[in-house]
Amino acid sequence: MxxxxxxxxxxxxxxxxxxxxxxxxxxxxxxxxxxxxxTEILGRTAIGLIKDQVENPLVIDMCCGSxxxxxxxxxxxxxxxxxxxxxxxxxxxxxxxxxxxxGFSDRVHVMQGxxxxxxxxxxLEGRIDLVVCNPPYIxxxxxxxxxxxxxxxxxxxxxxxxxYGISIHQRLVRDALAYLKPGGWLAFEFGEGxxxxxxxxxxxxxxxxxxAFAEDAAGLPRVAFVQxxxxx
Length: 232
Hints:
Layout: E1 18-21, E2 24-27, H1 38-50, E3 58-62, H2 68-76, E4 81-86, H3 89-101, E5 108-112, E6 128-133, H4 140-143, H5 167-176, E7 180-189, H6 195-205, E8 212-215, E9 221-227
Parallel strand pairs: 3-4, 3-6, 4-5, 6-7
Antiparallel strand pairs: 1-2, 7-9, 8-9
Helix pairs in contact: 1-2, 5-6
């Protein structure tokens, strides 16, 4: 799919082509990750955790990219308020455009910063019902070898998860605890074969109940979801 604006025969800009994600039409742009089918597993899992369970939920979409998860959650949970966070100018600008396109600028607040640093001063500590995240999870070595083709049209920041592919997960699992209320949920995506690493990270954090996993169509774990312990 073309990810940039195109011009008509007279040189005037056309409407951008859109990408469908969980019943939401998203504008895409160069320099921003294209949402994958696997991430719909994360989106539907996250919605199921709080739908009909939490009144007026407060949600953080970390590493939000185009805003796809935040906007899908806002679409399916009409009472939710969301904060969508990412690092780069391109992703933040695109997520804000998509929030406006969907009519959710009043409920989806797009912030810029390094993970939870983008939420400093918002007063959200200990108040969040759900943190959802699709972080980079391909190792640097793989990105420079057999997965290098991913960088042909999309940015390294969207894929590079450090030496073992879990550098962002480590920070996410640790730092989400300060924002989640007791009993609040953390849900995140990871790569094939990384479920044991994900479970170990959550166990070492000592603030979560035992982890559960959602599987893809092939039966492979691809999403972890876990509650903050009441005493954490």
